[in-house]
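in:
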């Protein structure tokens, strides 16, 4: 049985204001439990662990060519978050199907870009 959330479209209704405020408070409380500090390459939270690792990526000398990047996640990743690169570039995964339990394949739109990537 699927649960259907009520539509919030009248922001003057005190009940709907309460729902929004409660949701935002819960979201804020949850955000305080997160910590993006690296401990042995892992990402941890105060009350739970997030299954992710940071990797340093330096693209090769030819733009838009594939690089193999090693990670220690221990499983096939489902995605990445790209940090701020040292120069203007787009970092992207052209073929996520080629990701393994130890490597991911990335491309950069510029040459020799350095960036930290969160693999999750």
């Amino acid at each position: 049985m699927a649960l259907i959330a009520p539509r919030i479209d009248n922001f003057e209704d005190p009940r709907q204001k309460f729902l929004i405020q409660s949701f935002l408070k819960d979201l804020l409380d949850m955000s305080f439990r997160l910590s993006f500090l690296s401990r042995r390459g892992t990402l941890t939270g105060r009350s739970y662990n997030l299954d992710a690792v940071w990797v340093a990526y330096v693209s090769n000398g030819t733009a838009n060519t594939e690089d193999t990047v090693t990670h220690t996640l221990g499983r096939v990743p489902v995605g990445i978050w790209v940090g701020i690169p040292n120069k203007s570039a787009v970092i992207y995964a052209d073929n996520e199907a080629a990701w393994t339990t130890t490597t991911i394949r990335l491309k950069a739109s510029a040459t020799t870009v350095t960036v930290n990537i969160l693999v999750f």
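note: The chain has a mean pLDDT of 82.
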